[in-house]
Amino acid sequence: MPSVPAAFVAAVESAFVQRRGQRFAMALSGGSTAKRCYEALRASRSIQWSNVDLFWGDERCVQLHDENSNWLLAREVLLDAVGPVGSATPMRGELGADAYAALLPGVFDFVHLGLGPDGHTASMFPGSPELDTPASIRVVATHDPTGVNKFDRLSITFGEIARAGCVVVTVEGAVKQWAIQQVLAGADVPASRLNNAQLTWIVDFEALGLTDTVASQPQNSKVTP
């Protein structure tokens, strides 16, 4: 079975080939799994990076070069390696949600998401009022009401995610077992609210409490081993 990063690369390459126009608008994620996925993606020979427009699905309200910045992670492990891209539009917290929403493409071709141990995805946290944001709103300011996840943040909304051409959630490690169990059970955690006609979960077997490598279940359905 392929690793999570390898399966992610295959998903991006497939979406790139099937994109609606010449351009390919992609929303990036953050975290350790995203880092491994982007390290693998930079070796792809199928993506014409000059046709790729990069955005961010969520971001901490920190300076771009802060060690906690999703922009910095992507720049160091992906952008610096692949050379010039069509465009890269960081999510700058100081500019606010409306300003970033105005910079977004009409529809994302590809949205990459992760999953937190508490069941959050993007920066939509359990108990946050932003979970019920109207679908017409594209970006919100948010934070973790429990204080476990630090920093104020910006995040695309579930409505924005639902409109994307393709959504892929990558999940690794035993620390995510509880969250995946909640999603599989349809429990009320933020990630259970993901809704997209082309939604794929790529989950390693450790996160599922199993012993193999990775499971991938496409087309708006939940992962099974």
Low-confidence stretches: 218-225
> Helical content, roughly?
25-40%
Main sheet record: 7 strands, mixed
Global Rg? 16 Å
Order of helices and strands: HEHEEHEHEEEHEHEE
Classification by helices and strands: alpha/beta
The average pLDDT is 93
Shape: globular
| Strand arrangement across the biggest beta sheet | 4-2-1-5-8-9-10
Tell me the number of strands. 10
First-to-last CA distance:
11 Å
Describe the structure.
Helix 6 links the parallel strand 8 (167-171) and strand 9. The chain has six helices and ten strands; from the N terminus they run αβαββαβαβββαβαββ. Helix 2 runs parallel beside helix 3 (70-82). It is of the alpha/beta class and 225 residues long. It has helices spanning 4-17, 32-41, 70-82, 97-101, 158-163, 177-185, and strands at residues 24-28, 52-56, 58-60, 87-88, 110-113, 139-142, 153-156, 167-171, 199-204, 214-217. The strands form two sheets. The chain has a seven-stranded mixed β-sheet with strand order 4-2-1-5-8-9-10. 25% of the residues lie in helices and 19% in strands.
Helices and strands in order:
Layout lengths: L3 H14 L6 E5 L3 H10 L10 E5 L1 E3 L9 H13 L4 E2 L8 H5 L8 E4 L25 E4 L10 E4 L1 H6 L3 E5 L5 H9 L13 E6 L9 E4 L8
Helix pairs in contact: 1-2, 2-3
What's the short story on this structure?
The protein is of the alpha/beta class and 225 residues long. The protein has six helices and ten strands, in the order H-E-H-E-E-H-E-H-E-E-E-H-E-H-E-E.
List keywords for this structure.
225 residues, alpha/beta, 7-stranded mixed β-sheet, 3-stranded antiparallel β-sheet, 25% helix, globular, disordered C terminus
